[in-house]
Amino acid sequence: MELIRASLAVVEPVADRATAHFYALLFLHHPEVRSLFPAAMDVQRDRLFRALLAAARGAEDPVALRTRLGELGRGHRRYGTLTGHYPPVGECLVQALARYAGARWDADTELAWRRVYRLISTIMIEAAEEAARTSPPWWQGEVVRHERRTRDVAVITVRPDQAYRYRAGQYCSLETPWWPRVWRHYSFATAPRPDGLLTFHVKAVPAGWVSNALVHRAAPGDVLRLGPAAGAMTVDHALGADLLCLAGGTGIAPIRALVEEAVEYGGRGRSVEVFYGARGAAELYELDGLRELAARHPWLAVRPVLSGSGPAEGVLTGELPEVVGRFGPWTGREAVLSGPPAMVRRGVGVLLRAGVPAERIRHDLVGELAAG
Questions:
Q1: What residues does the FAD-binding FR-type domain cover (predicted)?
Q2: Rounded CA gap, 198 and 195, in Å?
Q3: 208 and 127 in one domain?
């Protein structure tokens, strides 16, 4: 691991060039894998390369590494990735690293990287093969409802073509027919339903090909592709721990799903507090529904927070993490956070200072390793 860290320190400042060289080698010497990637590689950018580097950096924690790489291995089935594709990727990775690690590259460093890549690929291949025995690489999903909640936010309900298993708090990747092989992650916005329908909240973002297509172009009857469910932002309701939820913007989707799941468990003597933040009141598009749930279930409290406007009746003002901090301490709570990465990171810091142990804080910063 010392050799891995030392070579990473040299490569990361020039990662853009190393990435370009990596893909050039891969597509030149193994053109058969080109069809696995999007036509426009500026969307893919450095995702695969940086995921490999991040996985190598995490090799010291084999339990966490196995969990994360298992998800990646299962998820890569949706691209059509086969066991035979892993060795070419590994060879090109080593060649790109050798070129850009400079004097930090020697025979021992190469051996270290080959060992780590063998570990990474083995975990991913085993997870993919296990998943192949019980589930398809992807699901087809027909859009059955498309609701615009704000100018840039749509709530999309999809009917999968076969049974789809997931937990409240998880997410999956979606591919639209307009951008083949371009996948983006979205959280499930409801707990699993008897009718099997899946609901997602999507915000159109600048230069967001998939999000803009889903918000402004998708309509009932369109067919999407769905990858397998992933993510560890789930809650064991049987334990009955009090729950604290921080949701920013469309991050309310998995929080709403967790609240619905808590309702199904009947509260069990616990309390659930939801802090729901946005810049403007119009962006709190799920507030009425959450307040209706709170009116029926006294163990549920919903606290709207606005950061971009003046005081309003029944609404807290300020940045969401700092507002939550003012209500602390939160010792004894289990916490989940969902929303913009900057908000989640600040929120984690606030909760740690407010007495919540790190092992009781859950979030999914999806874009850190896999995709955005």
A1: 136-236
A2: 9
A3: no
Q: In the predicted model, is pLDDT for residue 330 greater than 50?
A: yes
| Torsion 316-321-324-328 (CA) sign | negative
338, HSE (Cβ side, Cα atoms, 13 Å): 29
With 0-12 CB in 10 A as exposed, 13-18 as middle and 19+ as buried, what is 135?
A: middle
| 306 Cα distance to chain centroid | 25
The β-bridge relationship of strands 300-306 and 272-278 is parallel
The CATH number of the domain holding residue 267 is: 3.40.50.80
Distance CA 137, CA 365 (A): 23
Listed range (197-201, 257-261, 317-321, 324-328) with the worst mean pLDDT: 324-328
The pTM of the full predicted model, rounded to 2 decimals, is 0.82
Q: What is the pLDDT of residues 232-245, one digit of tens each?
A: 899 988 777 899 99
Domain boundary among 107, 132, 157: 132
Q: Which of 283, 259, 273 is nearest to 340 (CA)?
A: 283
Q: How many CB atoms lie within 10 A of CB 50?
A: 16
- The predicted-structure confidence for 20-39, as pLDDT tens digits, reads as follows 899 999 999 999 988 888 77
Same domain, 354 and 263: yes
The string of pLDDT tens digits covering residues 175-224 is 999 998 889 999 999 999 999 999 999 999 998 899 999 999 999 999 99
> Is 76 within the bounds of a domain?
yes
Provide the 3-class DSSP secondary structure of residue 169: coil
248 close to 340: Cβ distance less than 8 angstroms = yes
Domain stop point among 202, 226, 250: 226
> Which is it for strands 139-148 and 223-226: parallel, antiparallel or unpaired?
antiparallel
